[in-house]
UniProtKB/TrEMBL annotation:
Organism listed in the record: Actinomadura livida
Domain Acyl-CoA thioesterase-like N-terminal HotDog: 26-108
Domain of life: Bacteria
Name of this chain's protein: Thioesterase family protein
Record domain Acyl-CoA thioesterase-like C-terminal: where: 133-262
């Protein structure tokens, strides 16, 4: 694949837990470093596939970003910390050339009985807009990777403008070449965009980067299109906290939260 050709997936499998990152994984700050969405989804996929238990589901994933993740070959290792049929705790580590770049944990729990009456708080999501907005060009922002690999339909707020914001989105390409995305993978691919959708800050003046992300799902999402409503709280002398609700066309299915560092951008 040439650098100018569009990627067919975020990652190409190399076998034995190794993956080649394509240019589609690149985040907004550099074409050489990845957005957290594909990274989180890759870890979620690894959790789902590691010693699966019939009737179990990944209900919560926490991703700790130890350093920028290069657009390069990555290795994943997963282990079960607390085994169990009803509840199990898993850990994963993502490395590049032997150096840890991301660590993650997950809870796998048994599915609730099918006859349980659903309880979901909050209003239903807004309607899916009929048209897709082209992603705008931001000065100093790399839009040719992940941001363009996703299809966005903005409901509230506008890219590059202060939030809070609400958007529907879906991936134009699968996470892994030749493989259909699972519901968990679709949710994690989008969720790390929460701080970008909900940010109150002018990105031309302020640098705001998340150090982690937690996604908790009370059910698996359905369909390609997912809705995320996000907002960011921040304080001088403190840091920033992003919270987001996740929904599909049937209603809400989970929450996402990020801790963020906030700093002034250095002079150009």
């Amino acid at each position: 694949m040439s650098e100018d050709a569009p990627a067919e997936a975020f990652y190409e499998p190399l076998g034995d837990g190794r993956f080649a990152s394509t240019p589609a994984t690149a985040g907004p700050w550099s074409p050489g470093f990845q957005h957290g969405g594909p990274v989180s989804a890759l870890l979620g996929r690894a959790f789902e596939r590691h010693e699966p238990v019939p009737g179990g589901r990944i209900a919560r994933v926490t991703v700790e970003l130890l350093s920028p993740v290069p657009v390069a070959v990555l290795d994943i290792a997963v282990r079960v910390v607390r085994p169990g049929k009803r509840v199990a705790h898993l850990e994963a580590e993502l490395t590049h050339e032997g150096r840890p770049v991301v660590r993650a944990t997950a809870w796998r729990i048994m599915q609730a009985p099918a006859h349980l009456e659903p309880v979901v708080h909050g209003p239903p999501p807004p309607a899916l807009p009929a048209t897709t907005e082209p992603f705008p060009q931001w000065p100093g922002v790399h839009t040719g990777g992940y941001l363009s690999a996703m299809e966005w339909r903005i409901v509230h707020g506008t890219f590059g403008e202060p939030g809070p914001g609400t958007t529907w989105a879906r991936s134009r390409i699968p996470l892994i070449a030749g493989e259909a995305d699972t519901p968990l993978v679709r949710a994690l691919t989008l969720a790390d965009s929460a701080s970008g959708i909900g940010s109150q800050l002018d990105h031309a003046k302020w640098l705001i980067i998340n150090t982690d992300m937690t996604v908790a799902l009370h059910r698996d999402p359905a369909g390609e299109w997912l809705c995320m409503a996000a907002s960011v709280d921040l304080s001088p002398g403190g840091s920033a906290l992003c919270e987001a609700t996740l929904a599909d066309t049937s209603g809400g299915f989970g929450r996402a939260m990020q801790t963020l560092i906030v700093d002034e951008r250095p002079p150009a």
